[in-house]
Design goal:
globular; Transglutaminase-like; 4-stranded antiparallel β-sheet; Immunoglobulin-like; C8orf32 fold; single chain; 2 domains
Length: 262
């Protein structure tokens, strides 16, 4: 389907502030970007580069005062995500070099400390896709989705202890549990059609049978109609805005619909 998505960000800075944004999706992985629009008020110079994970990154200097960015994109995306319970664990020695980093502990995903928990969750399940689905289902059942229970410092270890969080925390925990079982896993941020309440969303992917599969513990069943913006080891790699100075976010609006948004 064609999915029309975008966001509006209004910010305020007291001084000109160097910033890196990740707001542009790329084609590939079940999506094709048909059109894009990127509006800034006031207009400033922007340069772009591709980071080590293939994400499009925009470099700019936010001027002092009020500054806004509005992005719109139309993406041809899949209606349903792939599900394959026969997808097997890839032995560590056969994992491609560019994917090995997704097997290691990272800032928010302490997979080296969650091995016992992972083994309890997947006990009795065959190695591979069924184990990851068991992890996703366990998080869905046992972690309470609740705003205000976590912040930018919350890690997978914290979520395992408090049993509360939001999509970011659900993803970090799923990633950590997978990695502790030698299953490469990565974080994805983007848009999900008809998400309620609407916001930018996070989920995780696991590398099985030689490819990546989507898992989203916030959803009751496999759901497609999503647009990926950025991939990384955890939230530290996929921040949609990184400011090298003090910037206040005054307003944020996100949409992902089957019709264009004005």
């Amino acid at each position: 389907m064609k999915l029309y998505a975008g966001c509006f960000l209004k910010m305020e800075a007291s001084l000109p502030t160097p910033t890196i944004l990740m707001l542009r999706p790329r084609s590939g992985g079940g999506q094709f970007v048909l059109s894009e629009e990127y509006i800034m008020e006031p207009h400033v110079a922007v340069s772009e580069y591709t980071d080590s994970y293939g994400n499009f990154c925009q470099r700019l200097i936010i001027p002092s005062g009020t500054f806004s960015i509005k992005t719109r994109t139309c993406v041809e995306t899949i209606d349903e995500i792939d599900v394959d319970f026969s997808a097997e664990l890839v032995p560590a020695e056969d994992i491609p070099e560019e994917i090995l980093s997704f097997l290691l502990p990272s800032r928010y995903c302490q997979s080296d400390l969650l091995g016992h928990m992972a083994l309890e969750i997947v006990e009795g399940y065959p190695q591979g896709y069924e184990q990851v689905e068991a992890i996703r289902a366990w998080i869905r059942k046992n972690i309470v989705y609740e705003y205000g229970t976590s912040d930018v410092s919350t890690s997978a270890l914290d979520t395992a202890r408090t049993r509360t969080g939001v999509c970011r925390d659900f993803s970090h925990l799923g990633i950590s549990l997978c990695r502790s079982l030698n299953i490469p896993a990565r974080m994805v941020v983007g848009y999900l059609y008809d998400l309620k309440p609407m916001d930018l969303h996070a989920w995780f992917e696991a590398y099985l049978g030689g490819r990546w599969y989507i898992f989203d513990a916030t959803q009751e069943k496999p759901v497609g109609k999503r647009i990926s913006i950025a991939y990384g080891r955890d939230a530290a790699d996929v921040a949609l805005a990184t400011h090298f100075g003090l910037v206040n976010l005054l307003e944020m609006n996100v949409w992902a619909n089957d019709t264009p948004q004005e």
